[in-house]
Amino acid sequence: MFFVGVIFNLLAFLDTNFIIHNKNTNYMKSNYLLIVFLMFSTLVFSQSYDIGGTVKEKKSGLSIPGVNIQIKNSTKGTTTDFDGKFTFKGISSGSVVVFTFIGYKTFEYTVTGTDTNMSIALSEDEKVLDEVVVIGYGSQKKKEITGAVSTVDSKTLEVLKPVRIEQALQGTVSGVNVTTQSGSPGAALDIRIRGIATNGDAKPLTIIDGYIGELGLLNPNDIETITVLKDAQAAIYGSAAANGVILVTTKMGKKNSKGKIVYNTYAGFQETSRTLPILNATEYALLLNERYANSGNTIPYTNVSGFGKGTNWQDKVLNKGVPIINHDLTFSGGSDKITYSVSGSHLDQEGIVGESKSGFLRNTARVSLGADVTEKLKLKTNVIYTYFNRRTLPENSNASVLLNAVNAPSNLSPYDTSGNFTVFPGGSLGNEMINPLAQIANSYNDYNFKQINGNFGLDYKITSAFVLSSSIGFKTANSESKSFSPILDYGSGKVFNTTRSSVSQNAVNDNNYSFDLFATYTKTIAENHKLVGVVGNTIYKEYGNGLFATGYDVPNNSWDFADISLANGAPPQGTVPVSSYVYDERRLSYFGRLQYDYKGKYLLSAMLRRDASTKFGPGNKVGYFPSVTAGWVISDEGFFGESSIVNFLKLRGSYGIVGNDAIPNNGYISQLTGEGTYVFDGTLINGRASGQIPNPNLKWEEAKKFDVGVDMNLFDNKINIVVDYFIDTRADLLIPGIPVSGISGGQAPGASNPTINAGTVRNEGIEFAVNYSNSFSDDFNMSLGYNVTMLRNNVTYMGTPFIAGGSFGIGQQAPSRMQVGHSIGYFYGLKTNGVFQNQQEVNDAPSQVELGVAASPGDIRYVDVNGDGKISFDDRTDIGDPIPTATMGFNMQFNYKALDFSMYTFASLGNNMVRNYESVAPDANRLNYVLGRWTGEGTSNSIPRVTTAATTNNLFSDYFVEDASYVRIQNIQLGYSLNPNMIEKVGLSKLRLYAGVNNLYTFTKYKGFDPGASNGAPIGGGIDYGFYPTPRTYMLGLNINF
Amino acid sequence: MTITVFATMTSSCSDDFVSRPVQYSIDSENYFNSESDYENAVIATYDLLQSTFINVLMGEIASDNTFAGGNSPTDVIGYQQIDQMIHGPVNENLKQLWDWMFAGVQRANYILEFKDKTDFDGKNKVIAEARFLRAYYQFELVKWFGGIPMKGDARFSPGDETSIPRSSVSEVYASIQNDLIYAAENLPATPAQKGRATSGAALALLGKVYLYDKKYDLAAETFGKLIATDRYHLVKTADLTTQQINVGLTPFGSIFEESGENGPESVFEIQYTDVEGASYGQLQYSEGNVAVGFAGPFGYVGPVFADGNNFNLPTPKLVSAFEAGDLRKEVTILDMVAWIAQNPGTSYTKQNQDTGYFNRKYIPRKRRTEAAGDVKLTSPNNYRAIRYADVLLMAAEAYNKSTAPNDALARNYLNEVRRRAFGDNNHDITASGAALADFIQAERRVELAGEGHRFFDLVRTGKAAQEIPGFTANKNELFPIPIEEIQFAAGNWQQNPNYNN
Question: Among A211, A771, A916, B447, which lies 20 to 30 A Cα-Cα from A1011?
Fold first, then answer.
């Protein structure tokens, strides 16, 4: 049925196009008549002057085409041409000529005589309230926005030089927090808008030019603006908008502008931003001796004199001067009917660990075209192609390269005497620890991703008040990956040894399309009442499949031969080395919005959206999502007067309900997707069993969003303040795999617990942002920005006692929980109270024997939280959470003559992180804080003794929970632009050189690699398994405009 | 144009768009349309037998046979607490046992719920397998937790925990006995494939359930019936292959090696393989015997055996329970000091509660090259769930405790086991009555050491409190219902006596 609709629509379009074309010829004729009439009328007024000249941009000196030039209080006007030149004839003496151009301050000129060689300079006006902001199915003047909306523009992106765009949202937008899953090239980042409200998918919806897309795959230089909808304003996107919406507008050409070629490039060198302070070989040997001696064992190293410093494994693994290179090229321009922008980019980044073994290469290409097909019909299309290739090393687990580098004894050398990788001993070093260099050398994988996506939109102006818009968006993505597991021998007993080589190859195909159709009606009634109504419909479908296969016995045990076509060994009997999946999920939505304002002073908008989703079963598919937003521009009121301090003051509020359906597919039916495998006659035989426990009552999760805010401009619009208070209550929370009674078989292999609407999470917070910008003179201007978000997260209801997640140490209970009365994903463990100094203290304290072994002097003293006179696991309590209480950004830019300087900083306060990268193997190396350990009464009250004897010191407690607050200088950049007049001679309009450093320095007390990292899991986030640090990048770059 | 487009939109975008079929999916409610559908569901029901590794491991740790061990006193807290008899309702490992055994019950009941849907020849056998397996899982549950909720031939669905009560222990036993009587009558005597339940397995399990239910006459009758089939016998020298003899295996020792799997003494054996493993977070997925890897010596380097996690360590008390001349001692206990002396260059790393002893029957052996997955989670060692030796000792116990005891027959069965153990007739037991009963239990201890039976034998004979350090009478006979389940049941289920929630 849908396709029929599309075809009809296309036919209708072709039809209209034809008719309009004919009409257009008529229109042209009438235009001619008008011009003739105008020329005639000029002749009538003979007492007049002529003016002419060039309009330029004050800062860069570049000419501005398309500037509107008009005589004040008249309809008479002209515009500048491609070269910014204009001539305006026959102006009567004393007339005021007004030069206006969007984004620039208006310039007025009083005509006193003829001057045909004028040079008008327009200065940028960054604080214009007429700036238009995209709000979803329409746009609005910033002044009239009634929701909590923040934007990041291309200028910020140009400075920040993010490899992935998500990075540019950190610290630049209030209410948005970005965490890295890893610093390895191409690793994903997680964006959270106004906190984490769900333990399911907490990712915001990203709309690229009106079409659902993925932020991380874009070339940052293709982006014009990013708009973040944080409150009920997002309700127009009803479904999937519960986590907030990010609207991306890509760059378009400008009408009536000369073709412009922009080339940007940078090359940089990366290095680790941190290495952990580890014991050197001598310190290690001495500590090990103490450990063994403390438990009455013979010491392993009787003579440590020759040990020296030994091997610094991190230096061996973390490389310096690792290259990153980026190029991008954009062609753009436009005539009075057509605009175009064509661009391409190339990024090549190697990893600071393993260099090319953890590399990321991305190429993008984009074509964007806008055309006024007729006066009434506008066409817009944008197609983006993305290719990337990524290679990775084992991370974030006990098999991670970095973890091995941190825990490897420094008395072991990387290579043996014959130049082979040293084989690590097993036994008391554990059978998981292996030579990290050997591990890098033995890691082979490759991931290729290709995607083409884009959209095709039409606006048809039926009357001046009534516009019909339609848009088709599409994506098709293919990825192929290959990983090779060679025959490996890391030494006797090591768990990563393999006796058979294999190669796994995967192919995944993901597609989606959307079709939007909506009508916009704009009407002004009785001059002061303005109405904008939108009604529309959107359908969305995502579908795809994946195919996975493994081949055994790769010839020559070599990556060069690692392909299933050559790996013809039989799989182990009974195993099925192939698998596949398909999916097809859809949404159908209707929406309407009515915006009303009276004199631009009282603003009101109401939205209603009806969504139906395949994620829910019959009877529950449909959800209705209403919202209202309102604003009052107080500064427009008569009583407010002409305040010299406050130039603009707006109060706004919003409330609405937004939906979420981001849950595993087909949760409402029971399918035989379980694992039912058994061994008969010594061979694995596969049967059939139930998968996830179904929940036929699944329904939409609802985010109730409340927001009140104030927008204020002060001191001649130099200072802009935005303050918001919000409460985001997530009700009917969809909890995938929620614990239910085991009697229903949810823990069988391949089965899982159901998804149930069973929770309420509340995020309450305050956002404050202030920006200051001022031009002190023609040569010097500056802007400063500061924003802070304070957030409190609380689980207020759950349909199950708690959900546990994450992992800590070996064989220990899960450290993270979601539970009523606490932050989502809080840390649940023992509370400590120093270190026992002597036996008397141990005797006087509640017994710790129930934890496994009685305490001795030098052991951690735990707190009897429940007061039952003994320490047990029942004494576990809330010992912190990974959610920051405040995040803030501080940004500054200065321009002085040809120099520009910028700095972006970000701070996160009050977030905890769990130190979980330390091996518990008796012979593992240690961080050097252990030098401050307890060695006798009065030596330390925080760091316990070392011993190989059994202790309870490694139990999950606040000893391992650290304050991971940090301040990070994300970026500094210094640029120099060559004088435009000089470079004009060689055909350039801009030439800027710059040097910058990304991730310059992080101020933190946190001991691990990266306090800003998280695996992104709502329950189990903030546990540090040895995160790959975000690299520090030194770069030199060039911007050239032709 | 507007009208055309809107007209098509309204018609094309009805809610039909979001009512799509699920592709390539088998809906569980439209299944059971052929014999193979039933067969596949039965295979999946067997699957959870592999998860009973945790019953064996924890059952042994709970007894006075072994220490928990592990890397440290806090390694797998749930095991450590059970070892010390300080376990409470908060115990992730007891929760796993509960979950996995109920998952087995659920899969059996899935078949039984649809037992009348499609007919075919030999369906009785399929139903009998499903009922045998349900009985196996429910017997485990009743041994560990006492009365459990039951729903007849139907699956539980979420919410049932708040309405279906825990049946009494005798109701559960009655249901299990019915299932096994049916299974014994409808299962084949010889399995179509190694690993399948047989009528012999059903009889043996039925006899065992009668013993636990203290119905000794019925137990004796059932074991008598089984023994009379003459289908099983204790492994004797004549059963050994030349190769087994060449590597120095005794008849008893041969049972626990790979070459001895599914041998003449095997009445029911849980099958494992080493080609598909799992992760520590999802042990129930493993096709290997996780208990074996967990029990292996940590950091072991040397011949025959392989590395493990140092759990389930034989206590000196168990080692001294073997009489002089008992050939089973060396097969049951690996004495590391002696082993290292015999095999220079061998080493392992002592960990928590090291005794120098390991459970030789069930520790990992050297891997084949075909093996895959984490070595500690993918051991191929089958679990000999019911051995004929166990049947003989249970029969001896049943005859000894029958209303009209037959101690002569009981002694015969007991001495049959002892003669193999000592290789002579000089160690025969001549006692009768209560003294004989004690000898039978003592024999069970050494014959079946490391096989997970000891704790339950002590409980049902009332000896647990005197033998197991820390055991509290009238409490520790049953394990607590996991706290999560008590909370889910919202007052519908009471906690077992003397456990505080």
Answer: A771
